[in-house]
Design brief:
The chain has one domain: Up-down Bundle (Formate dehydrogenase/DMSO reductase fold), CATH 1.20.1630. Helix content is 78%, strand content 1%. The protein is globular and about 65 Å long. This is Cytochrome C oxidase assembly protein. It holds the Pfam family Cyt_bd_oxida_II. It is found in: Cell membrane. It comes from Microterricola viridarii.
Length: 341
């Protein structure tokens, strides 16, 4: 296989991993106003992702680094053209990370509510803007002959891209609610399951609309249609199993939904990496955006050695922190009783 094509799919795989793992992180953050009835509830929610959220975020760093090394032209056009959107994502991720670390440093409810708000905003903004960004990449943007983006931030906020943003927002929200039901016990577990059921209906409608619209943009590629259909089936299956209270199966199907949806977008994009809407000759493709054969060869051997080690470490981390979190465990760990925020 051509190494440029191989790395196109490796980058796709890295973004799949990021959206699955940080996706439920974002979802948990977005459920705080709905499931966090008091401070103890909110602590339970945050503790479900406490040991893993920072590890999950490393996937986007690796994806960005691989994009820079394997497709420098794609990286340059993407990060310069989408600069403001990506900066907003970065600031949101920083605010969310700071909130996780500082929320518990002082006992005042006002202090905690301030950082809870930052967690919510820091979860909503990336969940929305990642969808906007990828929808624009698939649809194509204004690129000149020097591969420079010539549009504005408002050009990126077109109806198709905003629908893509709503799709990732709702997918991550539902994914996070299901994860909460998988990782908690007692009343909060039941409330999370009910929230996922309600959110799942909205997610199915929005995601279906986006996949159908994308089918027209992809000119009904057979591979895209198959992957999009499988993603739809998995999403409906996740909703049905959540309805039955089978959180493990539901969560696995949500992960499969996100994986298949992202894979379908990369399939719709292939062999382009960033189509131009001004002139098809200005489009960035795998061929004209990739690094040299030598660079890609070195990267391939590096990935072959280190990627399995990273996966093993992350798998071990999830195994260690596999137990459910409940109000009782938080109370036992801190030695304090539940109290209203």
């Amino acid at each position: 296989m051509d190494l440029g094509i191989l790395w196109f799919w490796i980058v796709a795989g890295l973004f799949i991993g990021y959206f699955i793992l940080d996706g439920f992180d974002f979802g948990v953050g977005m459920t705080l106003p709905f499931l966090g009835k008091d401070d103890l509830d909110r602590r339970v929610l945050i503790n479900t992702i406490g040991p893993v959220w920072d590890l999950n975020e490393t996937w986007v760093i690796v994806a960005g680094a691989c994009l820079f090394a394997a497709f420098p032209e794609w990286y340059a056009t993407l990060f310069s053209g989408f600069y403001l959107a990506l900066l907003l994502i970065l600031l949101a991720l920083i605010a969310r990370g700071v909130s996780f670390e500082y929320r518990h440093q002082r006992p005042e409810s006002r202090w905690k509510k301030w950082f809870d708000g930052m967690i919510i905003v820091g979860s909503v903004v990336p969940a929305l803007l990642w969808g906007v960004a990828f929808a624009n990449i698939v649809q194509g943007v204004a690129i000149d002959a020097d591969f420079n983006y010539t549009g504005t931030l408002f050009d990126l906020l077109n109806p198709y891209a905003l629908l893509g943003g709503l799709t990732t927002l709702m997918l991550f929200f539902t994914h996070g609610a299901i994860f909460v039901s998988l990782k908690t016990d007692g009343e909060i577990r039941e409330r999370a399951r009910k929230l996922a059921t309600k959110a799942g209906v909205v997610t199915i409608v929005i995601a279906a609309s986006f996949l159908v619209w994308t089918a027209f943009i992809a000119e009904f590629k057979v591979a895209y249609l198959v992957l999009a259909a499988l993603a739809a089936v998995c999403l409906i299956g996740a909703w049905l199993f959540n309805l039955r209270g089978s959180e493990g199966v539901s969560f696995a199907l949500m992960a499969a939904t996100i994986a298949l949806a992202v894979l379908s977008l990369f399939t719709a994009l292939f062999p382009n990496v960033m189509p131009s809407t001004t002139d098809v000759a200005n489009s960035l493709t795998i061929a004209n955006a990739s690094s040299s054969e030598y660079t890609l060869t070195v990267m391939s051997w590096t990935a072959l050695i280190f990627l399995p080690l990273i996966l093993l470490y992350q798998g071990w981390t999830y195994w260690v922190f596999r137990k459910r979190v409940s109000r009782a465990t938080i109370e036992a760990a801190t030695g304090v009783a539940a109290h209203a925020a």
